[in-house]
Amino acid sequence: MEAAVRYAQRALILVLSLTIGWSGWKGLNAFLLDGPGPVLTQSQGEKAMPLKVRKTDAEWKKSLAPDQYKVMFQCSTEAPFSGKYNDFWEKGAYECAACGAVLFASETKYEHATGWPSFTAPFSEANVSTREDRSLGMNRTEVLCSSCGAHLGHVFDDGPAPSGRHYCINSASMVFRAIDDKAKSGTEVATFAAGCFWGVEYKLGRIDGVLSTAVGYSGGSVRNPTYKKVCSDDTGHAEAVQVTFDPSRLPYEDLVLKFFALHDPTQVNRQGPDVGTQYRSVIFTHSEAQKAVAEKVKSELEREGRFRGRIATEIIPAGEFWRAEEYHQKYFEKNKRGACAF
Question: Would you call 196 a catalytic residue per the annotation?
Fold first, then answer.
């Protein structure tokens, strides 16, 4: 009898160990918790997030579905393979289910096989925050929405190259918006190339009405390009910046005018000291309406002689936007300096 008890205990420990390892430590929440999760405290030295959206606990509970409230404001975890976005691959953006902030883009979603939606990077570093999570006797990094403070999931270091990051996120914390639905949600996407994307992102990000930015590679023929490959000048990609903006505050025509003003559009396959096709000037249009506006603005600027020389800016339909390696995102803000001329 004693031997049977010992065998059962060992079997239970083995199952638990396999569960923890298989789920990247996230599944233990779902395995052990049936109700509110533990209260998480910020690690020493961390500052409280300056939240843009604040509601009382009662207001969040009233505005969210029970499963959303349980995950987002009680730090619970949905069961693996149960979330609606686990095996979901449409193109678009994943927004915070509580406040609508854009959290992740479909381009960064991948299959990690742990049972929860997995991403290599957030849509914008400014849109998510992290803090230390020492609950359940483990040391993990919790991911939260920067706008409202809602719990989203955890981030691990077992993701694919080049970042190696694995954002393991609960489906209940997100709402998916297809690309075609973005205009209905009050935002619009624009993509530009104007030389080194470090400086271009910094300049575009400071424009009133721009909600978020991301740097990447567009206009090429090679899938999954890296910075090293693009710099070889063999992939056809341009260093590009994708912008999400509010057209009610910043009409697309005004954004295009600002794009022309922030660089020299007469230079061919270069911008200042940066030479190569990856530094060419391009407007990647996401609709026929954007194309018409871009062509109109370019034509008017040429007719008015605003620049000394012919405008070399290409206007072409937007194709696949490949988000650049994480160290390139918000490079100027991270390093307090840039290699580009401002």
Answer: yes
